[in-house]
Amino acid sequence: MATFEWIIALLIAAVLLAGLARRLAAPYPTFLAIGGACLAFIPNSPSWTLDPELALALFVAPVLLDAAYDTSLRDLRDNWAPVGGLVFVAVIATTAAVAFVARWLVPDMPWPVAIALGAIVAPPDAAAATAIVRQVKLPHRLVKILEGESLLNDASALLIYRLAILALTTGGLTWAQAGPAFLITVIGSAAAGYALARVTPVLVRLFDDAPSSIIVQFATTFSVWIFAEHVGLSGILTIVVYAMTLSRRIGSRMPARLRVPSYAVWEATVFILNAFAFVLIGLQLRPIWERLDQTLRVEYGAVALSVLATVIVVRLGWVMSYNKAIRMKIARYGFRPRHAMSPPTVQGGIIISWAGMRGIVTLAAAFALPETLPGGGAFPYRDLILLTAFCVVLGTLVIQGLTLKPLIAALKLDDGDPVGREIGWARAEAYRAALAAIDGDETIEAKIVRKEYQALLAAAGDGEDQRAAGELPGDRVRRAVIAAARRHMDELRLKGVIGDDAYHVLEEEFDWAELSAAEGR
Asked: What are the φ/ψ torsions at residue 283 (nearest 5 degrees)?
């Protein structure tokens, strides 16, 4: 019972911290990290443990699928160079720099352990960056670069992480062994993710009720990860390819009555997983801190702060160097993107370099380190790695997470809203197709629908440059009508004229109508 009470209390605390973050216009992972750190020093807090092998599957698989499902493949192709530089060069440079710093400060640390530490703290977090981006108006190109990086850098970092752990547990790993293994893993993971995404829609379409559909979605997500890990592939890369393929095969075929609750459940699940990742790591810190004497606390603290400074400086150095090089190239050869986007600027480089908050992947990877080696004995410096990983996450979320929004506001970035123009144009095209579908139909129903869509089409083309409208014609009237209908329905229920069964059927109908006329959609 005590465990259940703690879970309820922690969930309520997480919701309150997230609410505080929204009021302060800060990313909610920042406050979860602070809460996790405080939890480590609360007397009589629970001592929960989690199987390290379960950590990555439980915390990372759903979070990555949720992010990858909404990723634009077109925008990734348009920004492949900056995204690729962050995914490969920045991750490798950060891993190497952290490994050298760790070895310099702790000479007895084996190289594979130092490299594993570097790979753990290398990838920035998708949830933290997205939480900031949703609160401010960033140029579309910067948003897509950050989203693409946070999606794919986990795969590159954790591939290095796996090779480092393999080198430690097997006694050594040569470049001749690591190179082919890396390529086979990448190619095999991409192929497996694509193939599994071709099969899954057949299974999902067998269930037409929301609870069953959502359960199948989660079950297949974890199954894909488990399958990839069992056959020696990268669970992260497999999930990313799987989700991006799946969104194009099943997205438009899923009815709204399933899609709306599915999105809500996935959003809640990602929040809960973020909350418990910080809680579990926080609970691991207390016994670690208690085991350390004063000298080791100072030493480990120095290592953690040095690694934190390293990850910030390396990212800043790479991004601004690349930004300078690409601006010099544009000055000489011009800027001719395939789709409308803003050109690289110094201000954009500053934002990208400062948006390097670490989060759930770093925590899960640190927690996933085995406690013992296959041949016996404890994993070297596991306590130091856990402490350092949490300090890097906490430090980047506090230092960068709390200052990123003011920095964006100070730089006054604006790209003219290309997505808004795309929405306006696509909306007009969709309404033209809708009108064409009932062209020639002279029934009363068709005339009513035709008149409404003609008004929608006129409104879609009225805005400047066909930008996205805040709402559609008639929405204000619809909301007023629905509100009046709800009030009358409530009165009928209170008077006992209709029962709860009839009430809930009508309530669902009005909910869908209200969603279709939502303000600021």
From this structure: -70, -25
**Is the CB of residue 282 less than 8 Å from the CB of residue 36?**
yes
In a domain, 331, yes or no: yes
**pLDDT band for position 118 (50/70/90)?**
very high
Q: What is the dihedral of CA 139, 144, 147, 149, to 10 degrees?
A: -110
Same domain, 205 and 226: yes
Partner residues linked to 372 by β-bridges: 378
Domain of 517, in residue numbers? 470-521
Residue (of 59, 46, 41, 139) closest to 337 by Cα position: 139
Please check whether residue 157 lies inside any domain of the structure.
yes
Tokens encoding 92: 């490798």
Asked if pLDDT for residue 520 goes beyond 60, the answer is no
Q: How confident is the model at residue 464, as a pLDDT?
A: 47
CA-nearest of 363, 226, 281, 273 to 49 is 281
Query: What is the per-residue pLDDT for 365?
Result: 87
Q: Which two tokens stand for residue 318?
A: 């790479």
CB 326 within 8 A of CB 240: no
- Quickly count: other Cβ atoms within 10 Å of residue 94's Cβ: 27
Which of 373, 397, 416 corresponds to the end of one domain? 416
In a domain, 42, yes or no: no
How far apart are alpha carbons 257 and 259 in whole angstroms? 6
In the chain, the number of structural domains is 3
Q: What is the rounded average pLDDT for all residues in the chain?
A: 81
Reported as half-sphere exposure (CB side, CA atoms, 13 A), residue 149 has a value of 32
The 8 Å CB, 24+ separation contacts for 450-455 are none
Q: CB–CB of 86/320 below 8 Å? A: no
Q: Are residues 385 and 433 in the same domain?
A: no
Output the CA–CA distances (angstroms, integers) from residue 414 to 32, 307, 418, 464, 518, in the order listed.
Answer: 31, 34, 10, 17, 27
Exposed, middle or buried, 82 (CB in 10 Å: 0-12/13-18/19+)? buried
CA proximity to 280, closest of 363, 222, 361, 359: 363
Whether 441 and 486 map to the same domain: the answer is no
Q: Determine the residue type at 189.
A: S
> Which tens digits make up the pLDDT trace of 7-55?
888 889 888 988 888 887 777 888 888 888 887 777 777 777 777 677 7
Residue type, 217: Q
Report pLDDT digits (tens) over 283-312. Answer: 777 777 778 788 888 898 999 999 999 999
CATH number at residue 146: 1.20.1530.20
Residues 432 and 313 in one domain: no
Query: Residue with structure tokens 């399933």?
Result: 258
| 307 and 368 both lie in a single domain | yes
Residue at a domain's end among 398, 416, 434: 416
Residue 264 and residue 170 share a domain: yes
